[in-house]
Amino acid sequence: MTEHPILITGGTGKVGGRAVAQLGALGVPVRVGSRSGEPRFDWTDRSTWDAALDGAKRVLIVPHDGELLTRPFVRRAKELGVERVVLLSGRGVDVPGYAGEGSTAGRTHIDGEDAVRHSGLQWTVVRPAWFAQNFSEGFFRDAVLGGELRLPAGDGAASFVDAEDIAAVVVAALTGDEHVGRTYELSGPSALTLDEVVTVISDATGRTVRYVPLSPEDFVAELVGAGWPRADAEDYADSVGPIRRDMDSQLSDGVQTALGRPPRSFAQFVRGAAAAGAWRD
């Protein structure tokens, strides 16, 4: 296995970048699949696929939301000699009513899971809950820095999972045979409301951060007023909908099952991120 590089698509992202680091620490050859990588990999430019896949036997697929590219990519990977794929999917793929009818990410994950399961390759599917890192390096960070998290999430809770844990499960699936044919649902050890989330962050950072629940309509109107295309604003509102409908509070045992240890708590994540300066201006 170590004679061939493992291709990590999305190799500079929250999960991909951590998987690259963890594989590197194990001494496993890694190829970073990104538009800035060498060779360059771009989901939307199929002419870059072959060079990125060349010589790889195992691949992490971090899908390109909004376009059904996983299936043709898997097909090409198989043609070029890839033997194992690990797919980063999403929670709720098989739960009726979880994603809105217009959810681009939902369609991407549903089609992607079907593609890998029927590819004839060794496969593992990883379905994480909301990333804890969304608050420290993702689309909620600016709101945290601004002191106000305005979302249409009501008083629902979510079992946020640390991206380090997601990457560790991915690495285990890429390197260990016991994970082939498994679907891992990943979450943190407890579910928190957004009021509880901002309290944890405030306590750890000394910042005053508050959560302001909005209706989906008001949320979309605010984003459109800030210059967002309406379709993008509605897609964002839909993505938060499962929290509001209390469909993201369930706990999953995937981290424990795959790694033999419990997942890190949200408070542990926040303390580490705060110590690393995640919320310094």
UniProtKB/TrEMBL annotation:
Domain of life, source organism: Bacteria
Full protein name: NAD(P)H-binding protein
Lineage per the UniProt record: Bacteria, Bacillati, Actinomycetota, Actinomycetes, Mycobacteriales
Domain NmrA-like: 6-221
Positions in coiled-coil regions: none
